[in-house]
Description:
alpha+beta
Amino acid sequence: MSERRSRLRRVLVLSHDADPASHAYMRRLAELLEAGQLPAVPGSINHIAVRHDSWCPKLAGGLCSCDCELEVRTSPLPEASA
């Protein structure tokens, strides 16, 4: 399994929903990952902000079906305390 495919699997497994691919924002995130547009910098972590449209059913506990905006920020991992 490729590293990119392995990362995609981790993204989907970390979702809180039983079927994460049913959400539009998760499909968009998977597309970014498959296209290599999510940074994969050793020693860092990605923070992904999802901005749903005001009418999106996700905001009321439903499935996301909007054309949400994704903002990706990368920051270094905190130093491990010994």
